[in-house]
């Protein structure tokens, strides 16, 4: 019995020592925008001037195609577009409920913002409904 208590005490001391040497630091949660304007502002803050400049030399279709797999995946996963985030709800009540369609609307809106074109959000929602 004494050996069992010593073994248990040693294990507890070991765990306490490990915890103090390697404290768990969770990654900060990314901010989830609440509407399309905040999406544009967030993307604009994340991307550098070079990426914005490159976007100006592409077609909207090419821009959406290039961003879909890389940045689009990050947005779909981290902004909760596969789940019930407030951004997902914002788009769902406007007719665009599928995560990949939502990211396409976001990138088309951003592209139009960067290139100085009218965003025409309602038109984009109709184009990417689903």
TrEMBL record:
This is DUF6794 domain-containing protein. It comes from Mucilaginibacter terrae. Residues 32-113 form the DUF6794 domain. PROSITE patterns: PROKAR_LIPOPROTEIN (PS51257). It comes from the Bacteria.
